[in-house]
Design goal:
The protein is an alpha+beta fold and 269 residues long. It is built from 9 helices and 6 strands.
Length: 269
């Protein structure tokens, strides 16, 4: 865990601090729009890669090519943006557990083709523009290439809502940049490779968006000692096209499994 080696250069330039502006339409569902929140899932990429390595499988391409970055906050990358369970789907007997597992493939509705995590590239192309794809590639290391994370995310969490793909992925890019510039993002960057306390992280969240927003942020960890793999932020669906604020974040039922302290993992294994 602490024997960190430098690996080969990353094919996609993750270290970009500024992105080409993309003026996409507001994110609006065309159907099944009766849900109350989104979850913005941001990976701490070095921790994600460490977790894949610890499981003993073949590391994804973006992890095999991972390298140090001059701006450590750029290790905070996009996993996805997940709409909550629509009331119209819940009324058909679907619960939260089934919705989170199957998303758009949930039966009896929306009952669309299942996106399988082991076969991401089997999902259909998203149809996003080249401009948006270029911006997404700089903040979602698993996009394109042999990983196809963007196809999987759209097939599972986007297509059944009729989201414009440019609007969906541009929203992910915008929110990622907002979090990077926030007190929590700067906290992660300034503590790169260190042990931190959850209370200190929560203080950074409170500084950014108010004390009531602390419960809006879920942290997931792996390993013993625990290291951060992902941050999940619950956002009011009515405010998804607005900047993050105390009014736009919603409490989640669980804070995650990181415990009282954890490591902000650094590059290598």
């Amino acid at each position: 865990m602490f024997r960190k080696g430098l690996v080969a250069s990353l094919g996609v330039a993750m270290a970009m601090l500024s992105l080409t502006p993309v003026y996409a339409a507001p994110l609006e569902p065309k159907q099944y729009g009766d849900f109350d929140h989104y979850v913005l899932a941001l990976s701490w990429q070095t921790g994600f890669c460490q977790s894949q390595h610890d499981r003993g499988g073949r590391d994804p391409q973006e992890c095999r090519l991972q390298k140090e970055l001059p701006q450590k906050v750029d290790f905070l990358t996009v996993h996805g943006l997940w709409p909550g369970l629509p009331k119209s789907i819940a009324a058909r007997g679907v619960d939260e557990k089934r919705w989170m597992r199957y998303g758009c493939a949930t039966r009896p509705v929306p009952n669309m083709p299942e996106a399988k995590v082991s076969q991401k590239c089997s999902a259909a192309e998203t149809g996003m523009s080249l401009e948006v794809a270029n911006n997404l590639n700089s903040v979602m290391p698993g996009a394109g290439g042999s990983s196809c994370l963007e196809r999987y995310e759209y097939a599972k969490h986007g297509v059944c809502f009729g989201f414009d793909p440019d609007a969906l992925f541009a929203t992910m890019v915008r929110l990622n940049q907002e979090v990077k510039r926030s007190a929590p993002g700067l906290f992660l960057a300034s503590n790169y490779g260190k042990h931190v306390s959850r209370s200190d992280f929560d203080a950074a969240v409170a500084k950014a968006w108010g004390v009531n927003s602390v419960k809006a942020v879920k942290l997931n960890c792996n390993g013993n000692p625990a290291y951060l793999t992902e941050m999940q932020i619950a956002i009011d669906a009515r405010a998804i096209n607005e900047p993050l604020s105390a009014k736009s974040l919603l409490a989640q039922p669980h804070p995650g499994n990181c415990g009282n302290d954890f490591i902000i993992d650094s590059v290598g294994y």
